[in-house]
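Quick start: read one record
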Amino acid sequence: MVISHNLSAFNANRQLGMVSSRKAKATERLSSGYRINRAADDAASLTISEKMRYQIRGLNQGSDNIQDGISVCQIMDGALAETQDIMHRMTELTVKASNGTLDVQDRQAIQDEINQLISELDRTTKSTNFNEKQLLSPVDLENTPINPNGGKADIIFVIDNTGSMGSYVNNVMNNLTSFADGLSNCNIQYGVVEFGDTDTTFSKSPFMSSHSEVINRLKQIHCSGGGDYEEKALEGISDAINYPFRSDAAAKEVILITDAPYHDANKDGKSSLTDTNVAQNLQNKGVRLSVVTSSSCMNLYKSRLANGSVLNISNNFHDSLMKLAGDISEAAGEVIHKNPEDINIQMSSVVDNTLTIHTYNVTPESLGISDLICTTEEDARMGIDKVRQASAKISEIRSNIGAEQNALEHAYKNNTNAAENTQAAESRMRDMDMAAGMVEFSRENILEQAGQAMLAQANQINQGVLSLLQ
């Protein structure tokens, strides 16, 4: 029998300490509801869980963003529904005014109502906004500082003339007048560079002062070939950079129009140029490159070459050119207004997971009915066609908006489903199984009580020594 070292008590105390520690952790888990409360509980699972939480928070906020986007679509569609009702009434009035049985006073009464409808159409489009963002009318930029150089801009069209580009060149010609109207406050010079694939040469036209000259030049373009070689876009851009730009021009703009990727020396060595060379030359010369291209090539030009706008060649081509006109006019310093900006909806924490809601300019001027006249039978008949075209454009826009809203609604369902399933996976990893936790707590509680009793008993073992000392 020894008394210097009470080993039984030491052992009982050590065991009691371990049980108390486990009971404390079980209590913590039951009270917090989490199996992992600190990194030391499960370092690997904590890392995975935090990554899942990042995704879940992004998905949940993305769902809120998508609902905002759906609201934007609903606002635009509601306003355009009223606009279309106005178009229907205008159709009735123009058809009525075309009737030969009416006299001058009758047609003047019809004209008065048409004027009121045009005014209401203008008010509706200008008052349609979401969070102060214009959706159906130009953005007012009248306070933009005027450039002291007088709002000059030199614009070079770099046109791909390969076989698949015929319809796009026609699109440019058909919309060039509207494009020029959007630049009416600026002193503009136009140039045209025509390029093909790497097996062909390209041509350059001298500066032209009128968009009608550009249209005549575009009519001379014969689209053919392509497919066997990549397009010589880099050479065309380089040639455009070497135009004799005015030294005092406020804006130097190159507009590349193509449906294909560019040829690059880094690919097969058939070109002496690389996108890096061309991008550096653009920067050195102070020239902005905007690209109107196919959806499959947009990211290529945006990430590697273009320092201006990158627009979809096959989606709302007219509106794309008009927005570009507003950007150029703004750069020249003479802008009064430009078309509303498209709205990008961020749908999750993945940077590129976005969906674009297109906005539109549907003011009477853009629809071509601001000067609708029905005071004569001939004018009224011309007005029928104008209203028909305007109504068709509104229908097309409403169709696009409806498609975008449907896409957003599908994205919302996908987001909520993904968030729910990711949350379930994160819960299985991080949350406490309360039933198992209670079993563990009860066991540790019993062991703790037993340990306390055994510690007391261990302390009593050496009491027998006192009887020997009596």
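DSSP finds 14 helices and twelve strands in the chain.
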